[in-house]
Amino acid sequence: MNAYEVNFDGLVGPTHNYGGLSFGNVASQSNSQSISSPKEAARQGLAKMKALMEMGFQQGVLAPQERPDVAALRSLGFSGSDAQVVEKAAKTAMPLLAACSSASSMWTANACTVSPGADTADGRVHFTAANLNCKFHRSIEHPTTSRILAAMFANERHFAHHAALPAVSQFGDEGAANHTRFSKHYGEPGVEFFVFGRSAFDRRFPAPQRYPARQTLEASQAIARLHGLDEAGVVYAQQNPAVIDQGVFHNDVIAVGNGEVLFHHEDAFLDSDRVIAELHDKLARRGGRLTAVRVPREAVTVDEAVRSYLFNSQLLSRADGSMLLIVPEECRNDERVWRYLSQLTADDGPIREVKVFDLKQSMQNGGGPACLRLRVALRQDELDAVNPRVLLTPSLYDELVAWVDAHYRDRLVETDLADPQLLVECRTALDELTRILKLGSVYPFQID
Ligand SMILES: NCCC[C@H](NC(=O)CCC(=O)O)C(=O)O
């Protein structure tokens, strides 16, 4: 039976702005208070989705969230009508309003962790929503994320959904950004690779000193248990704490894997040789042959990787078995990174082509091509069970562009978040979107 990797890209929400909310994420911190364009951001994301669809890849869409999150503000003590809640928060606690207004759910690599049916004990595709509890503005995403995933993958025979892990930092979980899967073919058992930043319960593991490690070993282990993964098909690795301290807040800022290929910086992991050897052995027992493309620091420094987002790329398998790398424009603007990429595709390795996309609006908040997509490997029968309206087609693309143009602002700054009209605009847009994508009622304003 055929099997595919389907990329579900996050549709950027109408409140996309630069709140400077993510300590440890260099782009988010340095672009704080810049002027954003929600419309341009959404269009840039849609252009990438369309391009992949036109290249023949399976492409899906994941809906944004209701923002400002009035329910979250109410839980923090703001009261009155919805408009009053927003006004009071703006007057007395602007940082909280900004946090409750972030469009951060666009980075769907952080929506959940997914294990394909070929890897799990019951043969179903398993999803665990990420609690994202390192940052308040992201910790409020998972209840709606769970409802949206349930509406997209609404078939109990094929899909199993798990609620987010306990909402404490000891089980800090950032979803697929710290998870990669290797396999010879998408429909066959593979090796799931979990990369964590620290251990919460075992003091023998080192930890970063400057910036937080968002993902814990214990969270990754819990997900492997929930999904019913076989130890023979699981590898855990600790991210190098030194690179977290240089701004690598998720593993997908320093490594990306697909099929039988791992593309990574030489400083990405602690005990790198052991990690690669274990991946190699476990994949070999699944009938695959790992190729690790290791980028030396002489070619690209960690700092250059963080600024260009070289590794926050999409590594895609083409029909002929070779691979294509989707990188952000920032890679072409960096002379050394671009030189490295030119050499990479000229060499005899698995990566034969590089395509560049302008994702500046998202990049300025630290979200590149890989952050913007959730990968779900599906066999044909599982793909047939997905809500068909969330799979991109030329006509859905046209509909979504028209929807963005009708509802999104061209420009947004922090003071605009205080405008109660923004909430009305957001709800009107999302109400229409749930009809376009046939999601049913998934937003708090639709169900409360
Ligand atoms: N995978 C990419 C995630 C980027 C995301 N940035 C943010 O939330 C920045 C939002 C702001 O600063 O407005 C994060 O750090 O989790």
Low-confidence stretches: none
What ligands are attached or bound here?
N~2~-(3-carboxypropanoyl)-L-ornithine
- Structurally, the number of domains stands at 1
- Strand numbers in spatial order across the main sheet: 2-1-15
Number of strands: 15
CATH names the topology as L-arginine/glycine Amidinotransferase, Chain A
Describe the structure.
With 448 residues, the protein is α/β, with parallel strands linked by helices. The chain has a single domain (3-67, 102-446), classed as L-arginine/glycine Amidinotransferase, Chain A. It has 18 helices and 15 strands. The chain has helices at 26-30, 38-54, 70-75, 82-92, 94-99, 136-139, 142-152, 217-226, 241-244, 272-285, 302-308, 329-333, 335-346, 360-363, 380-384, 394-407, 420-436, 444-447, and strands at residues 3-10, 58-62, 112-115, 125-129, 159-162, 179-182, 191-196, 234-238, 255-258, 261-265, 291-295, 314-317, 323-328, 351-357, 373-379. The strands form five sheets. The chain has a three-stranded mixed sheet with strand order 2-1-15, with helices on both faces. It has a three-stranded mixed sheet with strand order 3-4-5, with helices on one face. Helix 2 packs antiparallel against helix 16 and helix 16 runs antiparallel to helix 17. The protein is globular and about 60 Å long. Bound molecules: N~2~-(3-carboxypropanoyl)-L-ornithine. Belongs to the succinylarginine dihydrolase family. It is an enzyme of class 3 (hydrolase). Keywords: Arginine metabolism, Hydrolase. Pfam families: AstB. One of its GO terms (molecular function) is N-succinylarginine dihydrolase activity.
